[in-house]
Amino acid sequence: MPLLINREVVNDSWTLINEETLEQAGDIIVPLALYLENQDRLDNREGQLAVQVNGDDDLNPVLENLDRFPLIAVDFPAFRDGRGFSIARLLVRAGYKGEIRATGDIGRDRIAYLERCGFTAIQVPEELCKPELLEAFTEVSNYYQSAEDGVRPVYHQQ
Amino acid sequence: MYQYTEVDQKLVDERVEQFRDQTRRFLAGELPEDDFLALRLMNGLYVQRHAPMLRVAGPYGMYNSAQLRKLAHIARTYDKGYAHFTTRTNLQFNWPKLEEVPDILAELASVQMHAIQTSGNCIRNTTTDQFAGVIADEIEDPRPYCEIIRQWSSLHPEFAYLPRKFKIAISAGPTDRAATQVHDIGLHIVKNDAGEVGFEVLVGGGLGRTPVIGKQIRPFLAKEDLLSYLEAIIRVYNLNGRRDNKYKARIKILVQAMGIEKFRELVDAEWEQIRETDLKLPQAEIERVQAFFKPFDYDSTAAEDTTLATKLAEDEAFRVWYERNTVEHKVAGYRITYVSLKPYLQPAGDVTDEQLELIADLADKYSFGEIRATHNQNLVLADVKKADLYAVWQVLAEANLARPNIGTLTDMTVCPGGDFCALANAKTLGIADQINRKFEDMDYVHDLGDLKFNMSGCINACSHHHVGHIGVLGVDKKGEDWYQITLGGDDGSEAALGKVIGKAVAADKVADTLEKVIEVYVNNRIEGERFIDTFRRIGMAPFKEYVYAPAN
User: Fold this and answer.
1) I need a surface site. Which of A153, B274, B355, B438 has the fewest CB within 10 A?
2) Which chain A positions have a beta carbon within 8 Å of B29's beta carbon?
3) Annotation: CATH topology of B134-290
4) ipTM exceeding cut-off 0.95 for this assembly
């Protein structure tokens, strides 16, 4: 699936794995529960390791070990599940400096909000990946409230 | 009232074009139905039984005359010549065409209006007291805070996909006219022992399937902390609210399940993290917004009027209207004046294009060009000189907008019900007519006095039947409409949820049953007692006994 970073399509070196593909080589993203079950093995393998979290996960094991992960993926299991927006903000606030990647049911019309909440990478479905997709970032050019994108609240905008 | 800055206007204009493109992509098949559903809902667009329904925001109930004229124009051009005021002080069009909605939104933007977040699982229009700024007993005008919340919550990137809808209401004095205790968050403007003005915060109230009275989460919140505290509450809700069952997804269920103490603990922990950030509300911003709501330049000679007393003595119909539909203003010589949207045998809250224009003209001529909507689906001209009341009344009466029934049984709050709404289990409009016919005698209705009556066509409780002194809920029994009656609800300062009196009654028996309920009140009341007071004193038993007594 194409990956947007800084509003550009980039090559993606990461593979999301599951129980069956646990032995996969290279840079892998492991769902948090699976990671916790196989932590010893995974921590000692070659290649980079990232975790994927969603709203059902207890975030604490991740927040306590932020330095360990160069990338944290936040999954949106359904279009209407907005927990990932808050999770991204919590990661930013905890000082996480790695890639925060949105995966799952993304859709064109959420990508601007994802960026605002601190996602630095957004995985978008192939069929959406057209040049006009980027317009979604600029349709609304200013906002009232601050989030994680540097926009100041309206009362601090001059 | 608030006037858009360049920032506001640009945001609304851009939102119109964004929605235009979303609609285009949907109609072209590029945007899946389910995705479009969430997006259109966030812009106030439902698909209803007959046609789409567009809900336009009336921020905390405030409208100006130019806006009313624009709404009249939209009703005439894009709809069937009428519109409907809701219990969130918004305005609905019931017959727009989907492909024309972007044009309607563009028309709205030209008069500083929008439909942003009037539906969907996001932060909705904040509501407040329809007497804000003109009633003597308020601590401070709540509208600047409503506007500040409107701005903070509009297109909030984190809170656009909450577990469920989220409603905030603010009241500012001892009398709660904004039903704050049955909101997701209720804010009461209060003064603490040190004389500082801030907010008491309630959380987890709500109606719908599981009616709950809100619980106090914080006795006093400083003004500067308003946005950070709201953000903390809603973040905790967004992360922890249930998403597996939409009927258990409101914050009230979370607060109940977790307990208010635990919920408060989570909110406080979150709040500590964000209190000292950009969310801290500068005093200068409060003052900037307050400047839009400064008291009008009232006529200092208005109190010298003697014509009103003469007219009241001469004209009985005018006097009855004056007593029932006008309220004391904080400035001598002025009255707060209701426009009743509860005429005889017409749907509650409906207005025609011509009525909208007429009300706009009255507002321009007599009330500083502003109009307010109430959560009981009436309108208010807040600043009418006593000397002008007779003229205002004559115009309103001519337009069928002066039924002297505010606060009485026939000032019913009624949802559109099964005739229009796809969610409804039962029809409501015919039942409202039935009740109107039964209680046509205005002298009798006035004698009954303050009596809050609410009727919803389904368990979603859009018309707040749980908090009516008398509430009616339409239910479906094997394909037939039946009606369950509750007594003892209240959405004011002593908020309470009504209790079911007994088994549901058939559609043709609703008014007869109400009549019996009211007979019990009339036979038991003591001097000056309202229905709700009598009910509280004597309890349900006498009502139940009489209503369900076997016929002879």
Assistant:
1) B438
2) none
3) Sulfite Reductase Hemoprotein; domain 1 (3.30.413)
4) yes
